[in-house]
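Illustration: AAA family ATPase.
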Amino acid sequence: MSRWFKCDLQVATPGWKFKLPASWKGDLKHPDPVKRAEYRQSFADMYMATLRKRGVDVIALADHHTAEWLEEMKAAGGRAGITVFPGVEVVTTNGSDGVHLLLIGGLDKTERDIDILLAKVCGFDDDHPRYVPGTRRPPIPAPAPRSIQDILRDLPPGWIAIGPHALGDNGIASGKTIMGTARWQVLHDDKLAAIDVGSPADPVDHGKSEEIRSWNQKFRARKLDNFPCLERLAFVSTSDAYSLETLGGRFTWIRMAEPTLEGLRQAFLDFDARIICDWDQRLTKYPGRDPNQVTHAWVENVTLDGKLGNSATSLKVEFAPGLNVIIGGRGSGKSTVVSGLRRVYGSTEGLPEKIKVDLEDFYERVFAQATLSATHHLPISGETQVAVWTTADGSHTDRGAGAIRTNFPLRVFSQKELYERIAPDSDDPNSASRHLLTLIDEALDAADEVQQGDFSTERSKIENVCHNLVARRLLIQAELEQRADLQAREAELGRQVAHLDNPATRERRERNEAILREHQRLESSASQISQSIIELRHGAERLLPDTEVQSAGPEPHHQTLRNIKTILRQKIFSALSDAEAELRAAEAARRTGEWAEQVQGAREDDEAYQAELVSLGVDQEQYLSLREELALTRKRLNDLAVRAGELAELERSEREAWLDLMLIHTRRGQRRRHLVEDIKNRSQTLRFVVRPYSDWTEWARTLRRILNLRSDGYSEEVRSLARWLWNGPTETLEDRLRCWRSALITNSYSQLSGQISSSGEDRGRPAWWRKLAGTDQTVRIRLATLVANDTVSMLFLKSGGRPERDEDWQDVVHGSPGQRSAAMLSFVLHQGTEPLVLDQPEDDLDTTLISELIVNELRKSRWKRQLIVVTHNANIPVLGDADRVIVLENVGNTIRIKTSGRAHVGPIDVPEVRTDIQNVMEGGVKAFIKRGMKYDNEVSSYRRDVARLTHNSDG
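Result:
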């Protein structure tokens, strides 16, 4: 796979003007140590060690008019793991003191090759020496006898030209460059691959006039209209180092499969995707300003193992963190890889029914006996995890402490799936809306703004709270309805007991009963306190165990926390012991003294009193039964008085629970609107209309399912109820919900049916209301908690339309297949940072949309998310400049990565990959060239711009 290499493409050596370290030179007893072979090797190793310390992977030598140190540097680079490109800096004849040009050759170039280049291409010979005669070391480079235009024109294959310090006096793009001049024409030459424009804080701007500084800033920002080259010319950053201290001081990150001249050429051709200068703001988002250290989630590989239904052997595919493109002929296994990723990380829930059935059938045929696994990296931390799927266990991820259900946020879409999600359904006008909302909720889930599972859990929790509060309130209200009967019974019992009592001894009985009741309350309170102490002690033992797990962290801090816990434990147990002692003392005090005597006296007197009643002929059994019933009745009335006090608080809690239920739906709606607003702003071609609580068809379907109604049962009544409840004015929704819920809870429907009728809807047949009235209370409360879902409409801007004109926007449901596909692709590409897998997204799209929509969005998205694309269209891997192209083939019923000496995997600078793209996707090189000849001999639009601008400048 390709990766980012830290490159310094302009460094000098002691071959010309390099400043040797004073300490190193002084330690050697030789007047010119760099002339001795052993010292040259030692210095070259020191040179590479300095580069390695600064993280530089690749350099290009750029001594003026010489490659004297090339072999030593290449050898030392090999030892240090640093790639050394042969190169030379040339002073041309253009300008008063010559424009500089850096020529970089392939890795196989030698010092002799550079000497030949200087002679044959640049024109240096005995009559035209490389240095000004008579100048001391370092000699002054003499201008080449040939112009920079001539050098570029005759530059042979195997070489790349770069304009060093382009905005300086010796640069190609100095302030002296004006349209039509030699320097301007060179800037637009195909052979000039890149230029070094310095940085916004570059010393090249110091001391310059405001006009020159402003010009330089506009040039770097590519905002000069009379320089068409700025659209295609790569910018690099180099150190131009002439000392060890400055090596790698400025650098360029370049993405390549490996450091080769072709890798550099491809990077310069697609600088937006492959080049990041050290001053580029994109580096700020990477840890250590290293673009290899991605912070978004990504899948490293997927393995299809076990017994596959369409391949005799297993398959393992590696991915890059950026843009991956899978190509291959029909039956090569491209969609199998996609299905494997979906099987490990996704599900078929929420898919259109036809897509779901086809996919599950594929799983059964291909993966029934397979073991699928994938390695992925979490966002931010980059932690590596492995997810494994089998038919028996589903998908699980090992988290160290054990395997849990895989919930890594990877999203998979096929073009067919996207199209089907928004296909119109005459039987269900909100079908497309629900599919869009599913995608929106999945995006919110993947972005960790809120997980859909959490919403469902929270909703269920609040629904249960509502149910329990309503059930408790109804129970209390039913109990309170008994109060009048209990009060009448209390009075009657009181009269009966009074009649049986001896009037002269009634006060005596009541006094005894009061003492014994108080004694019972005191003992009950003491028992509760004792039980509380026991529970507090057990809780403290559990929460503050007298053990400590050793930690490898800073010991003083852990000891401090241990001390705090020990003191807290001691104080809690000391307080509990004190409480127990005081409780025992209180018990002892109750067992002796005046109170104990009162209690004992009341017991004895009550027994004596009942004996007296017997002696007087009163039926003791009847008397005791009436007294017991009277006591229970009074206790029940006391309890109801307490419950009556609870009722107001219970009603308040119930109102808050209903509000909370609506609030979680409202919050979800707000998150949905925030997401689609962000998509609208990013895409500029999509708009959304979200209508809260307006999907009454789904609400009605759920109500019918809960009531277990037949398909034709009460159809019009349910629709009328749903339309009245959810399609009415927004400002009265709360009143309608209150009326609906009150009717269900009280099981009284006259007011509800009247309101439905007054709104113009059919109130329904009496049988419908009898059906509701005969429904179990639990089911009715469940109906009261149902809340209709939102609906969302997605509109796209018609081709050539103006955003400010409402008539130029069209609902995607009514678009053509191509328009629907384009809108849905824009929708999924403009949301989230989770890995995104697209299976043949170009279907139904014309080439213009593929280039302008898919390719552009893939190029933008690769910086913040991983993309895996299966395609048959060459524009996606080529113009998208994929980090990794994976070529699959099917040979002898075996799906595999194509191999010929090495795997056909990597970016387009890998020759085998380039050939496969040409053969599989372009129909071969001959067909590609012939099409180009038939379309237009002018293959580069900027050449036409240059010709036009040059003509205008000459005129």
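Reading the tokens back as a structure: The chain has four domains: 3-289, 298-410+834-922, 478-547+557-657, 924-955.
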